[in-house]
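Field: COMPLEX_INPUT
Field: COMPONENT_COUNT = four
Field: RESIDUE_TOTAL = 470
Field: MODE = joint
Values follow.
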Amino acid sequence: MKILYFAWLRTKIGIPSETVELPSGVTDVGGLVDWLKTRSPRHAEALANSKVVKVAVNQEHVPYDHPVAATDEVALFPPVTGG
Amino acid sequence: MKILYFAWLRTKIGIPSETVELPSGVTDVGGLVDWLKTRSPRHAEALANSKVVKVAVNQEHVPYDHPVAATDEVALFPPVTGG
Amino acid sequence: MTVKVQREDFDVGAELAAMTAGRTSIGGVTLFVGLVRDMAGGEAVSAMTLEHYPGMTEKQLEAIEAEARGRWPLDDVLIIHRHGRLEPGDQIVLVATASAHRQAAFDGCHFLIDWLKTKAPFWKLEATPAGERWVEAKESDDEAASRWARDA
Amino acid sequence: MTVKVQREDFDVGAELAAMTAGRTSIGGVTLFVGLVRDMAGGEAVSAMTLEHYPGMTEKQLEAIEAEARGRWPLDDVLIIHRHGRLEPGDQIVLVATASAHRQAAFDGCHFLIDWLKTKAPFWKLEATPAGERWVEAKESDDEAASRWARDA
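Field: COMPLEX_OUTPUT
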């Protein structure tokens, strides 16, 4: 699964993207974000406040109860600030 | 007194402007328009319907009871149609 | 703060660049460019001649421009209005309003073009297949302008 | 009907000319040009970097452009949005809407820029005397966009 990070999520975590193996048991966005927090202290800190972590699956904004699958492109980013 | 005509008032009367001697007794716009009607059949026809004859004195829109004086520049024109 | 009534065409890109050059407090510019349409009132129009009252037109445009600046926080306003003979596709009018905030730029520009399209001292002579005709003032335009009336 | 997300600057005059060339049914074009201001939230800004999500950004801009065309009778719509590092005075965004009628052109353009300024997937990094900071989403912008919400 391809994970993309934007804006301060990218700078806090320190990488623009990573490819992860989706663990069994992770079936929705909320589960994915919780699991990503365990990958490093930087992940944990960046993803601590889910209010400011928005998620898109396959380039569509989705809520935390949206399902995720191994072939999805998942992007995590702060609330957009517009142009 | 300088009288200016615009748009179809100009084409109906046939001249863009004329200089007239203000007759005594003509003291306001309404009196002036009535007097101008007597100058030719073309004037009479063009000025027949006062609803569509707007007047500016010294480049300011004015109502028919606005005073006129010999040194004024008076313009007669149809309702503006904008740009 | 510029008003021009002219026969010549104008270059929107150049006017915008001149308005914003070196003025980094401006957050946005709203522009409206009016063009001659090939149709009016359901009839084909091959040309349009705009007549105006030189002197009075400029005075009135300057007055409405000052009113717009009084009502909205505008860093700059530009009005260019052409007169003379124009053909379909030709530019007639440009209104540009610059502001730190886009809402002010939009409101100022919209107010000015509604006024220009209805109250500005211009008269239109349209050339149609049936001949030339002077355009009459439209009710719908008066409504557009009246929505800007201030509350008493 | 064009959406471009690009690093390069754009030429408003050339874009306008391309949009209107030979299309004599267009009565007016409303344009909004957004510029980088030298101040934000009371602080000096020396540069701004716009980050976006390539692919998703274009998709969202195309969707909102289609919505604008569905809501107003627009002959054409152009959106150009830059990304990357920009300095005060630089152009950020152009929205242009062409219509037979100015009200539609105004409403369509205003709707699009309110959306772009609030909902478009861009993130701003501002360079200030205190260092670089990521801009947070603003309440006032959400209000501007919410006025376009359809009645249920």
